[in-house]
Amino acid sequence: MEEAIKQFHTQFEWKPVVTNAEKLRPVKKYIVGGMGGSHLAADLLRAYKPQIDVSVFSDYGIPELSSARLKDSLLIASSFSGNTEEAVDFAEQALAKGLPLAVIAKGGKLLEFAQKNMLPYVELPPTKVQPRSGLGFQMLALVAILRDETLLSELAELASVLQPSELEGRGEELAVSLRGEIPVLYSSTRNQAIAYNWKIKFNETGKIPAFYNVFPELNHNEMTGFDVIETTEGLSRKLHFIFLTDSADHPQNQKRMQVTKKLYEARGLSVTEVPFEGGSALQKMFNSLLVADWTAVHLSKIYGTEADQVPMVEEFKKLIV
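That's the SIS domain-containing protein sequence above. Prediction below.
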């Protein structure tokens, strides 16, 4: 896991190839069907380029949208392993209904399905990293299918800009401060994908519970759950709030974060700010995620958990067959 983090920037050196690209017809709407780490690229793309009409579907089947809406969209089945049953079902139903379809996978049933049916697809490199650690590959693959050459160039620049090893100290320091506590990630709505990604890394790498929410919505409900009194303060004492702050956020959301932090600290709650840092919006996003990676790895060391594999997920898959 540590080596995968240190080498993360090299993923952006990869040049994705869209096989059967001639079958891609021009569309302006995209629906990515994927679970877990396999839809994170779409989440980040929506955060970075909200003007691109990309939605995520994480369930069996296909979205219950009008036939016209579906036919005007490109459905993209994404599964890092190629064996995620929800993504395979998404692809099978899309093809059965004659909908525009493309595939992103490293191998497995989904890649075989794409090859058999001569669908447009991108085959991910034969890496051994976990899906959550292959985000660079998956984002490049998605953007290649969208045929956005400008964005592909922007992503390629990250290979020389990101410095994963330099962020380890920050992650280790945060991990130490989180010992014995449950992380709760807060971000703006525009950075929701980043906060969710942090949560996933704490769950899968650190093997600890973690939760997230976004401003300004949380100020209208969740916040009141931490207005502690003597009979309820014990429920919140194990929580540690991590505010992912971004100078590009709406000024009112920045103000909301600072006021909320003040209110929480006045009630004895633990709060840490982790600011976005970097020269470009993309660099800020991935720097934040790399800090999350390092924090999760060092939490795994603190608790003595296995950082790379996800045995409970594998156990579940065997039981659900």
